[in-house]
Request: fold
Amino acid sequence: MALWTVHGNGRRLVRDAVVASEERLSWPLTIGFGLQHLLAMFGTTTLVPLLTGFPLTTTLLLSGVGTLLFLLLTRNRVPTYLGASVAFVVPLGAAAGEAGASPAALLGGIVAVGLVVMAVGVAVKALGVRLLESAMPPVVTGAVVLMIGLSLAPQSVSWFSEQRVPAALTLGTIVLLTVLSRGMAGRAAVLIGVLVGWVYAVLAGDLVPERLDELAAAPWFGLPQLIAPQAHISVMPFVLPLVIVLVAEHVAHLKAVAAMSGRDLDPYVGDALISGGLATTLAGSAGGSALSSYAANIGVMAATRVYSTAACLVAAVGAIVLSFSPKLGALINTIPLGVLGGATLVLFGLLALVGARIWLDAAVDFADPVNLVVMGTAVIAGVGNLTLQVGELRITGLVWGSVGIVLVYPILRSLADARDATAES
Reply:
């Protein structure tokens, strides 16, 4: 039995057609959509290991392997790409700076987080998705999706401001093709927009000289560096709160894809958490960054309406190939930050609106003070990146915003319901 059925004739798509997760287009087109996912994840997935001190090629390798593992364990039904999680940057930096943790000790913390996420997935699998939905109803998942999309806005704007002309060309190309094209060009708008901005930067001499030097010096073939983790209790207070962040991100990813594609993905929540936790555990055990689903890749799916897991597989294989070829990785790394800013400005915006769509589909009551206070406060904290200092521990807005939404909302909801029940009796 084939892993994917061919959508239509595999070569043409009507304007509003949706390519389902178990479908694919012709392989040349599927490779093209996979390249969009590869480019969407590349900037952040290469930035995170540079900020945390882990080997770049190792993170690329384990990102690709983790994505393949995710697709396998979710039985090819949940399209995703697992890239390096930005949420870990500040906590790992704090653990290294305040607790003196070595890279091996930081990796031990990542392994611990992955194992706990797996345990949550096993519990959801055994006890049913209602276990998680009681804590993460649509009002919560919609807020997490919205917060993730908007919290990345400063990064996108910062990249855009680095090189405004190629950024504007990229943004304009993506917007015009998405809105005006009725053919495949509209579906491939992200890839075409990045290529347009990249080519302009090459012709205008706007590429970063240091990256060109790295490209010239990089060998065509090289083995990723593997690092063994070590368990240190001093790291755990800094990283264990991130369990809630990863769980929230994985669940929000499923809810976002379900809202966009019109598919019920609730039966795969447990599998997604198990496979996502396993991917993070594997990454931490060999020297890679913690892995999570990517906002930019959800944006690619929203823009193209292609949810084929075959495209995600292509991106994963591409990341693995790049991990063994520093030359190819350095070539893609020459894409200017402005170009990435122009592309992500669209993709992160699309993701934020998917959060609003989850609320609309669930008919969330915004006259309810519990919804208004908790959601509004947490989203603004996440978007504004309000960082809290608790002793030696620094908690970013995305982290404590997610934790606050997931933990505080059910408590306040229960208190409000108990108050209403008392008033009626």
